Amino acid sequence: MSSFSIHVDSEFESIYNLVPKVQKKVERPPMYKSRHNPLAPIAFSTNKGGAPNLGKMKNHADPVNFLRKSTPSKRNPLKPIENKFNYPASKPLKAKVPSKDDRPVVGLFTEKNFVTANAIEAILAVPRIPDSAAPDYLRKEDFGKVPKYLGEVQKEISQENEMIDAFVRKQMEAYEDTPELCDAMPDEERVVLIEKLKTKWDAVNKKYQVLCMHTMFEGHQKAKKEHFEKEMNGIEEDLEKLTSNGPLMISRG
C-alpha cells in the first residue's frame, strides 16, 4: 500500500470543520463570602470619643498634657538634687582668662648682647662626660693572650693523636711478631695492578656515560646504572689503597 499525506491550508475550508465539536462546560467554584459583617463598625477605631487625631481613650494619659522631664509622678516622685561635688582645696585653680580691658606691658627693652653671651657660656662650659663610654678593648686583661678554650681544644687533639699512634704501633707490633703471615708487594707488581685497575675503571666509566645519555630510565637501566656506580667506587677504593705511602702487605693464603 502506498501512503500519502494531504496538506490543508488554513485559508481554505476543511472537512474537519464539519465535524461537530464537543463543548466542555467549565465549572466555577462558588463565590467567596466573608463570614464577618462588612457593615459592622471597625474595632479600635480612632474615630471614637470625639478625638479622631490621637485616639483618646479612657484610663489613658492625656495626649496634650503628657508627662514631661522632671515632673513628679506617683511611681517616680521628684527628689531634690544635692550638689555633693566640692573642689579640693589642695589643688590650685587655673588662672582666669584675661578680660578685654587688660593690656600687656609694652616698651621694655634690654641692652644685653645675646650673641656674645651665648659664645662666652659655650667657651666656659665644662664638657659633659658620657654616661656609658665605649669599652676599650686594648686595655682588657686578656688582650693579646690565647683564649683558654683553644688550649683545651689543642689538649684534646693531642690526646686523640696519642691514642691513634698507640693503636698503630700496636698493630705494627702484631705484624712484626708474625712476619711469616704477610709479604710485602713488589713495586713492579703494584704498578701493573694500578694500570689494570685504571684501564678497568675507564671501560666501566665509558659504559656508564653512554647509559647516562638517556633521559628516562626504565627498571633494568636503573639497576645497570647503580651496578656501574658501585663497581667504579670499588675500583677507586682499591686504587687509593695501592697508591698510599708505605709498603703494601699481602697475607699468605
From TrEMBL:
<dbReference type="GO" id="GO:0005516">
    <property type="term" value="F:calmodulin binding"/>
</dbReference>
<keyword id="KW-0966">Cell projection</keyword>
<protein>
    <recommendedName>
        <fullName>Enkurin domain-containing protein</fullName>
    </recommendedName>
</protein>
<feature type="region of interest" description="Disordered">
    <location>
        <begin position="28"/>
        <end position="48"/>
    </location>
</feature>
<keyword id="KW-0206">Cytoskeleton</keyword>
<dbReference type="GO" id="GO:0005856">
    <property type="term" value="C:cytoskeleton"/>
</dbReference>
<keyword id="KW-0963">Cytoplasm</keyword>
<feature type="domain" description="Enkurin">
    <location>
        <begin position="152"/>
        <end position="250"/>
    </location>
</feature>
<dbReference type="InterPro" id="IPR052102">
    <property type="entry name" value="Enkurin_domain-protein"/>
</dbReference>
<dbReference type="InterPro" id="IPR027012">
    <property type="entry name" value="Enkurin_dom"/>
</dbReference>
<dbReference type="Pfam" id="PF13864">
    <property type="entry name" value="Enkurin"/>
</dbReference>
<dbReference type="GO" id="GO:0005929">
    <property type="term" value="C:cilium"/>
</dbReference>
